[in-house]
## 1
Amino acid sequence: MTKQNNSMGYQLPYKTLDIMDIRDIRIYTLICIYEIMVIPSIVFGYVGFDCMFINLTIQVIAQFAILSYKVKAALNNSENYHDGMKKLILRHYRLIRLTEGLEDNFNFLIMQQLISTTTLLSFSEKQNGHGSSFQEDSDFKIFEVSLMKKLSQSLDTR
């Protein structure tokens, strides 16, 4: 049992805007090359910050784990106890300063990403027509006002 090839065109139920004629192989190839270059750059630009932050956080966590192991080893070793503990305390202090620096540098950027993602999701939901009643419209306005209030409060504390 085989199906026959249907070569009839399909009529879309809505109008579309033809920006360019992509029947030309040269233009089609250039558009594909452009998309191959643009889409990963947008994705990596948006995700790259998160990956860098996660990588630095994992690095700090690993350094704390190594420090914890060295403290246990220093406590079990009775010779040069004071010198070893002094070095470990200095290293612990440096790690705490590093985590404070990470927190100070990345807090605002993470908050900005969370707020922008939440706002974009709420706008896209509103755009799709899911919020069409008066109650949902007022809830959306309350959400927008509270979001702007939180944003202004966080910028005031900076």
## 2
Amino acid sequence: MALHTDWEYCGWMESVTVCDVVTVAPSGLMRVISGRKELLRIYRHYAEAIIVATEREHGMLSDLHMAVDHESIITSMPLKSRVALSQAALRALDKKQQPWGILGMQPRRDLKELDQEVSNGKCDIMLNEEGRVLRSVSLCVVRLMREDGRILAEIGEMHDGKLSMGCKLPGTKVRSQELPHDAIRRLIKRQFGHLEAQELNRLEETLIGQATRVVNFEEKVSANYGINSRYTRNEFQMQIGPEFFAEDGSKALPRSSSKSSGGRLGLGRKLGQSGDSLNIDQYEAFAKIAPEEPDRVSIMAWLDPEAMPFLASGSGEAKLRDWVYSFRHELNDLVEGTANSAGAVARQESLSLFGRRMSRKPSCKGSPKTDGVMV
């Protein structure tokens, strides 16, 4: 990265074990790259992405600090160059699987779906420093915290009449040519789309300006593709006032009728007790339909920070399932009401269009059957 940007020199570093040091001469590197058209294009896109990333992610590169990680730089590149970078790793993966498939020792996986995911910009495939093929996915989540310390969480979803449960922070995948801050801005717009443009811009700048960003990496085998996957999770922690959730089109869901106790937090597990003491009815839950997806309902709740790990774990799965399932009637009513409203609007627009067409038709004068009106 030092080849493309200003680099802040911090001092000497002393190695305590034997290591290899590689030096790259810029002039020699350019001679190699300039003779290969596609490689030169990728090189330029990567260099441009680094420069843009360091400017927009608010940080100076140095011996000790990088404002943006390698995975985020790759994601922000044009899709054509991203796909070209992934193709070499895909070929290596396909070649690696062939001998095992021939010997019948391991079923050869179909890489078409993985190749399609790469072509859509949903992931990247790369070779790590050990030569292993790695699938890379970049995610952004937002930890919105109120004044009382509670955190906004997604606890479930209804799509096409089917309920699914899962306690997590609101999030999104980083799309092609996006940096983490771009993805989080898009997420804020989606969450607070009910605000006027000026108010939304003010909220966006306020939240981004005071946000604390934490980057975590998790590596595990993908259940769908059977290859090692590295998930880069950018978590933006933000404080927000309750006024931004007023009149956002969401529907408040009824409190649970649970009589379980446990104090305000209701978290007996903090003392090593069972999670059954978690008092669900203290939490505010609401349902929200995005205008662009009227058949999808997000179920949100304001939770104590200590409650989220339990509800996201296997131990809290049953309690979360019962909680979300208790809203099924309200969710069905909300979806039906939205569909009826959309149908009424569509019918009104259709009638208006029909009326405009009628007004442009010439009248049929002298016809005794229609009284001068064409039907």
## 3
Amino acid sequence: MEANVVMANMTWRPLWQMAFGTVPVEEFLSPMGGSLLYLTITILSGFILRILSKVILHPVISEYVCDFLATMEMCAYFYENNFIFSRYGPVWLFVAIVIECVIANRTYFGASENPVKALYSLCMKEIGPVKAVLKIAVQTLAGLASYRFARFVWSLDMVPDHRQRYYETSCVTDLNVTLLFGMGIELAATLTDTWLGMQTVMKNSFIDELIKVGNGALMIVIGISTTGMYFNPAMATGHLLGCKGATNQDHLIVYWVGPFVGCIIALLFDRVLHIDVTKSKPVAADKKKK
């Protein structure tokens, strides 16, 4: 009963009537329109709240708040990405992820959306262990909060898929392979994403960014049917923790141990193979002689 009252009071239809003075003809928006509005609300909410936090809050507090908001925003994207994948297929999922990540890179203002980055910063001695743990804890809470945010947007009742998800009371895990294979997939994806992120493969910074973002999007498209291909522990926790088909221990091994081990291996592999095309060959040769 309570859910029905909330849905009735918050749908897009009264908002449309207040804005345009007419009752909408259709019960729902088009699927494309629903996805675009969901993503626009998500992007603008995170962007505005991060700006406010930087203006109002102390820098130390603002850093954690911005991490929370960035993580919640990124996790919220992927609730809608599941609809995009089911409606339009892998090509449009790829396009959506690339666009989302390019926008995020320009609106996060240095905030982190993945606990793996806290581990990376700790290993690189950029932050201490206490700060790393705090960041991971904040991002994990943000992953869990992302479901509440998504549900709030679903309550606008823009498309039938949103209505169905709003009323769902249970979920099923995305882990469709064995435990060790699943951990290996998340490990390999994180290893690849982290290592490539440490390289400079093109002199043009935008093309370099597109290659890295495209690599992540391609891995998600290829591996979505195996583990969901999250390589983000906070996102996996927000989407899957407590879902049927996997125990909490399974979840921890696949979606936390796998990515963290993958990050550490990437750091070690970077010592063996590091690419930076911006460095001139003569300088590299001189270094080898020394």
## 4
Amino acid sequence: MYRLEACGHSYCKECVQFQFQADLNSLPVCCSSEDCEEKWVLKDITKIADKTNTQVDLLVEKATSSFVAKNQIAYKYCTTPDCPIIYRVSEKENLFTCPQCEIRICTGCHKQYHDGLSCEQAKLAGTKQADDKSLELFLQECKLDIKKCPKCSTLIEKIDGCNRVTCKACTTNICWVCLNHYPTAGDCYDHLYQEHGGCFDLT
């Protein structure tokens, strides 16, 4: 006879081994006595696995996979491909460092951990919209005379000189006053004199 550790119910050894092998495809393995659904503990599993030549590490992997599949809202696998480690999901951002591959995961959004940012902030941070917004804020607060090239968006700083500026990236000629741009320096100068009264700031 074999007595289960969890609940104490007894079975003949052949019966418990047969049940174990039959239930491997529908984990967890539970006591089959009437009105008892107590799950087998690890000690029972390792003993019977040894008797039936079942590899315990493969059994644990299968049991873990079955558990995560049934509890997808509460548990997730590490985001590294083929990493067997699981972690508990949280409602808000929280750091989980995988003990096997050492990747740092946010348990709220399941992405690489974002120090100092909420999940929403981290999601926005990687978008072009966020980059443009940050750049506009920088230009508004910056005390230097910096503007974006109207043709290629390269940042240009004007230190002194006249209001015709050449972008070093795309070589277009720019009116620094209104940011119109022209293919030649002559066209830009004509614009400056016609529209702004000259090529220098009137102070």
